[in-house]
Amino acid sequence: MSVFQRLNGYAWVGLLFVVALGRAQVSPSAAPRAIDPGPVPADPAQRVAVFVPPVLFDEHAFIFVYRSLVNAGWYPVLVGADTVIATGFDETMVRPELRRNELTPDRFAGLVLIGGSGAALHWQDSILFAAARAFEQEGKPVAAYGLAVPILARAGLLDGRAAAFFPESEGIPLITDHGARFAFGPVVADGNIITGHGDDAARRFVETIIRALEDRR
């Protein structure tokens, strides 16, 4: 069964969980802030916005991205649809610090969208579309992983660009129908847009993001 055949069921389950998330408790042992990024830097050029879906986010990619950014000297700020608890596939819980309508490129060096089945809840998200466009227009790195890639496609940011995505026949039209050029490979950078997918690509994905951030310093 492909990721897309499973997606509808996961998305509906995710919607049922949203109400319960506000009552959930953070699991300290699971929270990626086990690596303390330190105090929030005053300089926005040191901060990176990391958007997580409210449910069923890709924990492997999220934790890898978060820890790698911290280790490279960046401060990841978690962003969500709201500031209630977000829950991953394996019930890792994190609390976003900002809502997505607070995302502006003057406050961050770049934007990363984490995937997972819950990202499909944002495929029609005009607020997130506008935020991603604003970062792209400022020339700042905008990255999406897995099922977050169609968010960039629907925002119009992949039109004419090469993008990495799941190679299943059900998946490719989710980006090519919006002008993207499907590219084989786990990670693709086209200008300031970075896309990636797959269980084994998180390291390369975040390394590409960090290089793009460093290039703008």
From TrEMBL:
Transmembrane segments: none annotated. It comes from the Bacteria. Residues 47-211 form the DJ-1/PfpI domain. It holds the Pfam family DJ-1_PfpI. Coiled coil: none annotated. GO terms for cellular component: cytoplasm. InterPro entries: Class_I_gatase-like (IPR029062), DJ-1/PfpI (IPR002818), Prot/Nucl_acid_deglycase (IPR050325). Gene3D superfamilies: 3.40.50.880. This is DJ-1/PfpI domain-containing protein.
